[in-house]
Specification:
Helix content: under 10%
Shape: elongated
Strand content: over 45%
Number of helices: 0
Number of strands: 32
Largest sheet: 17 strands, parallel
Structural class: mainly beta
């Protein structure tokens, strides 16, 4: 077996490339990454003699390739930087391990897998984004931001019945009408379960998006407490899906210009369509025009 042994704490300030072989540690090391740690192996990072390790990332860790890299016996994995799941799977295995995300967990076709007993804390201002699969079998506490896609894309969130909270934020972008993944972001669940919604939904659009409908979340229950939409958009909950509808902008008409004397008493402005708008301009206040001002 091609094993590597680690018996002391390790700080990487440059580039560390884990391509093959298990890394077995002892003496409770602390692994600190401030540089770049690339992972393409299908091997394991775990204890040699029943000890535990802690990992702190303030740099970038990138998992790529088709293999699954497994992390065993980690007490705390603290991410203050960026963890990229670009291929294969980044897997946390040992029950009692905690992944604290204060930075960015990004997907570009890969997976993050948390096995039974692994805890994931998604903290305020932290971001989970991109296209891939995020799966947790145990506790997931979300007080951060989930932004599917890389403008745009689809993020699958599996085995988490309550992935959102009153403090969580979902950011969705509409690009065009070509559908999910290419035309707009989407959050889905592909394991047959449903997600309970909560927190805030923010929707933005690129210029020139045509009117139409956009299914942005599938397999869901409940509702968001706050929804922020661009102009001409509405939202609805339909058969487990969250659907946005963009309508054509209204055609506005106003009465023809007229002349009045400066001594004319203030009067209400009327006649514009569609109703419900707000009159504004010099001399206008509360829907009334005062020629004297």
């Amino acid at each position: 077996n091609d094993h590597k042994y680690l018996g002391a704490s390790l700080t990487n300030n440059g580039t560390m490339d884990w391509q093959a072989g298990n890394i077995l540690f002892f003496n409770s090391p602390v692994i600190t990454n401030t540089g770049l740690w690339t992972i393409t192996t299908s091997s394991a990072f775990g204890a040699y003699n029943f000890t535990q390790a802690n990992i702190t990332n303030t740099g970038t860790i990138t998992k790529s390739g088709v293999n699954t890299a497994s992390f065993f016996d980690i007490t705390t994995f603290l991410n203050n930087g960026t963890v990229n799941c670009n291929g294969g799977a980044f897997r946390m295995v040992t029950s009692g391990s905690t992944f604290n995300n204060n930075g960015t967990l990004s997907f570009n076709g890969g997976q993050f897998l948390g096995e039974s007993g692994v805890v994931f804390n998604h903290n305020p201002n932290a971001i989970i984004k991109g296209s891939g699969t995020f799966r947790m079998y145990s506790l997931f506490t979300n007080n951060g931001i989930i932004a599917p896609g890389a403008s745009p894309g689809i993020l699958a969130i599996n085995w988490i019945p309550q992935p959102f909270s009153a403090n969580s934020i979902v950011d969705i972008e509409a690009l065009d009408k070509s559908g999910p993944s290419t035309g707009h972001d989407q959050i889905t669940r592909t394991d047959g379960g449903a997600m309970s919604l909560a927190g805030t939904l923010n929707v933005t659009e690129s210029p020139g998006v045509a009117p139409g409908t956009f299914t942005i979340i599938t397999s869901s229950t409940s509702t968001f407490s706050t929804i922020n939409l661009p102009a001409c958009y509405t939202s609805q909950y339909n058969a487990g899906n969250v659907i946005l509808t963009k309508s054509a902008p209204p055609v506005m008409t106003c009465p023809a210009n007229s002349s009045v004397c400066i001594t004319t008493a203030p009067y209400a402005l009327t006649g514009a369509t569609p109703p419900g708008g707000v009159y504004s301009g010099t001399g206008v206040s509360g829907g009334n025009f005062d020629p004297a001002t």
